[in-house]
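Let's practice the habit of predicting before peeking. Look at the sequence and jot down your guess about where helices and strands might fall. Then scroll down.
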Amino acid sequence: MQVLDWGRTRYPEALERQQQAVAQRMAEQIGDILIFTEHDPVFTLGLRPGAESNLVWDEARARHEGIAIVKTNRGGDVTYHGPGQVVGYPILSLAAHRDLHAYLRFLEEVLIETVAAFGIAATRRDDKTGIWIGPRKIAAIGVAVRRWVTYHGFALNVNGSLAPYTGIIPCGITAADGTVTSMTAELGRDLDPATIKPVLAGAFARQLTKFLAPPRMRPAIRAENAG
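Done guessing? Here is the structure:
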């Protein structure tokens, strides 16, 4: 598996490049890849019905704050991407492993293992998507699949400002449901996203080996909601 780092990108540009990579993977012109990027500030709207209703700021307010609004074709609701976040886009063929729920479990394990390496104990939540520390969400997941090739992926909050989340109801999570956090907020010290990427890539490679193992050889993973 190849790991690519696109650096900082505008969301529409990154989506177009992902779609090109998906087409190449379907044609077997490339192998599986994991893409890292960091987006310019953007609210993205997923395919979940009613996602637009979870925008607190209108387009004019978002533009004033320097945040674009983009409709996309990933699963899930509305979320925020911006500086200080590590976004991962796996372009993987699931043709021999057609289990989307297992794939989501795999992404969750990657993120849980990654933050654990920095002393953060994260878990899933039965009733909510993403990766959580108690009532605080530290990573979001939203995927899409085209002819069993994956794209979109996950976003891990490292050290970016959490203020933009006041402009949305992130993933439909109300104040009663929980809040959003970052690795820096949890640890009380600043972290450079550049130091997170190699740890993420290592966790991804290890968990991918387990994910691709024959079913009888895979370790048991609790059946909980993915996100």
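How did you do? The longest strand covers residues 136-146.
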